[in-house]
Amino acid sequence: MPELPEVETVRAGLAKSLDGARIYKVQLMRPNLRLPFPDGFAQTLENKRILGFRRRAKYILADLEGDMVWMSHLGMSGSFRVSKDAQIKHDHVIMDFEDGQRLTFNDPRRFGFMDVFGAKDEDKHPYLAHLGVEPLSNHFNGARILEAFKGRKTAVKQALMDQKLIVGVGNIYASESLYMAGIHPEREAGSLKKVEAERLAVSVVDVLRAALVSGGSTLRDHKQLDGNTGYFQHHFNVYGKKGQDCPCGTGKIHSIQSLTQGGRTTFYCPVKQR
DNA sequence: CGGGCCACCTGGCGGC
DNA sequence: TGCCGCCAGGTGGCCC
């Protein structure tokens, strides 16, 4: 389920149930997800209290007693649930807590992964060290986009999804942000003017914040930890709407179009986005 | 280093 | 009903 708003919603759900809880037992139902679980993964987590949950990019980071960090990534189809329901297909990690709660990680496609490492190694972690700016931080603005995109020949849509430049924006919110900013997805990233970069920064923030307020987007049957579904999908302007009338209100009635970039589908308005 | 492409997986859906 | 191809919210690694 995961772009920034969905991951942040999951993080908040984990925090609500499990802040301060002590891990009692960790069961791995298979030796790997996309990556192998590190040696001693279960033993390292067991008997440690969770001090809090943070998010960096699309990674969930749990601070543990003993200056350790438990990292999770949801991939495309990963989800957590706090419940004592029976095990179901694709439940790969089951964590029981001292207070009786059970946390289960389910991931049909197994593109997710987990790791555990010392807190002092976090900044050097190969998957965390080269991440770009957090779009909901006060370091993010048009100037930052201009700097990140400078000299890039790649399409602005792909630059927007490049986690080394800006984190948290995936395929849905890249399309939605570019639509809102009125920028054509195939524009060369390095060609953005200052005003366009500023408009894009505002659009990215607006779209992510609006999605966050809605509890993220729920495609297919995905549920949040508490069993609720996000509902931002009802506010999409273009994502998944190829052929439908464009809501932009510019000129004559026209339809939303799609194209493929880097193997991913992009949705856009050929009139509003230039 | 940048950019393009493939790989990793399972499941759901539309078309025949 | 069954099979087939295609698509899906991500990202690491390989190649040039």
What class do helices, strands and sheet pairing give?
alpha+beta
As laid out across the biggest beta sheet, the strand order is 1-6-7-5
Main beta-sheet annotation: 4 strands, antiparallel
Helix share, percent: 10-25%
Please write the string of helix (H) and strand (E) elements. Answer: HEHEEEEEEEHHHHEE
C-alpha end-to-end distance: 30 Å
Count of individual beta strands: 10
Average pLDDT level: 95
> Which descriptor suits the 3D outline?
globular
Low-pLDDT regions: none
Question: For the CA atoms, what is the radius of gyration?
Answer: 20 Å
Strand content: 15-25%
Count of alpha/pi helices: 6
Q: Layout of helices and strands, plus pairs?
A:
Elements: H1 4-18, E1 23-28, H2 41-45, E2 50-56, E3 59-64, E4 68-73, E5 79-82, E6 91-97, E7 102-106, E8 113-118, H3 142-149, H4 156-160, H5 171-181, H6 194-213, E9 257-261, E10 264-268
Antiparallel strand pairs: 1-6, 2-3, 3-4, 4-8, 5-7, 6-7, 9-10
Helix pairs in contact: 1-6, 3-6, 5-6
The protein binds a DNA duplex (16 and 16 nucleotides) through helix 5.
Describe this structure in words.
The protein has 274 residues and is of the alpha+beta class. Helix content is 23%, strand content 21%. The chain contains 6 helices and 10 strands; from the N terminus they run H-E-H-E-E-E-E-E-E-E-H-H-H-H-E-E. The chain has helices at 4-18, 41-45, 142-149, 156-160, 171-181, 194-213, and strands at residues 23-28, 50-56, 59-64, 68-73, 79-82, 91-97, 102-106, 113-118, 257-261, 264-268. The strands form 3 sheets. Strands 1-6-7-5 form a 4-stranded antiparallel beta sheet. The protein has a 4-stranded antiparallel beta sheet with strand order 2-3-4-8. A hairpin with a 2-residue loop joins strand 2 and strand 3. The longest helix is centred in the last third of the chain and has 20 residues, at 194-213. It is globular, with a radius of gyration of 20 Å. The two termini are 30 Å apart. It binds a DNA duplex (16 and 16 nucleotides) through helix 5.
